[in-house]
Backbone:
């Protein structure tokens, strides 16, 4: 079984400040990990994914995440927040195979607010 | 390439009715997954289809069903609607979900309101 924990439901930062969104996972097999962003009234857009290659993953819009097996974490960061980053962010985990139980399991999501 | 399309975008139904939602995946993608998103439960997996076969299923009652056609388009059906079925229903497509470094690409969703 796999699960994702995103602590807190809301993070607020000032424009230009560091963005740090936390994600911890639980998995019985080496996981694939994903971060998605959702803007109001839209679907989910993939920011980045980890699939057992480099542990530091760079994504779109200046976001990156680091896979830390010892901490079972996959935190999302961005050095400098922009107003357009305000959205809801979801961390997700999946097993590295097809078929039964091969599904994306999402965290509850974190709403990011950016103050001018 | 065109993205994942879902129709209709918005739907209002009353309790007891049934509803069918449609999803057209990205051209060439053979896997379609469906998710329900609600404020209380978040994103929950409904089912996944690959080459017209249901390959994976979440923990939803039998009122929720789906199918996939030979052109990979998928439909999901909810019978005997309940108020709690009000949600955003998201469809995601991929080449062959779970294979290597495959990625799920999401559509804009169908907002279902049950009155």
Residues:
């Amino acid at each position: 079984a796999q699960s994702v924990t995103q602590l807190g439901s809301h993070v607020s930062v000032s424009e230009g400040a560091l963005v740090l969104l936390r994600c911890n996972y639980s998995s019985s097999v080496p996981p694939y990990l994903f971060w998605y962003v959702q803007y109001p009234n839209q679907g989910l857009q993939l920011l980045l994914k980890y699939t057992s290659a480099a542990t530091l993953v760079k994504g779109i819009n200046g976001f990156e995440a680091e896979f830390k097996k010892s901490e079972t974490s996959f935190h999302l960061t961005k050095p400098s927040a922009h107003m357009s980053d305000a959205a809801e962010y979801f961390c997700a985990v999946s097993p590295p195979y097809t078929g039964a139980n091969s599904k994306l399991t999402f965290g509850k999501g974190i709403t990011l607010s950016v103050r001018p | 390439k065109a993205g994942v399309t879902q129709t209709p975008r918005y739907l209002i139904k009353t309790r007891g009715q049934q509803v069918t939602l449609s999803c057209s995946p990205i051209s060439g993608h053979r896997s379609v997954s469906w998710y329900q998103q609600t404020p209380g439960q978040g994103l929950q997996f409904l089912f996944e289809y690959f080459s017209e076969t249901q390959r994976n299923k979440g923990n939803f009652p039998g009122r929720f069903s789906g199918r996939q056609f030979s052109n990979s388009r998928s439909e999901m059906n909810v019978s005997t609607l309940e108020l709690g079925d009000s949600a955003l229903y998201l469809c995601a497509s991929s080449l062959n979900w779970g294979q290597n470094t495959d990625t799920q690409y999401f559509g804009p969703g169908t907002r279902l309101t049950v009155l």
Notes: DSSP finds no helices and twelve strands in chain A. The interface with chain B takes residues 32, 34, 36, 41-46, 49, 51, 90, 94-109 of chain A (CB under 8 Å). Chain A has a mean pLDDT of 92. Residues 13 and 114 of chain A are 5 Å apart (CA to CA).
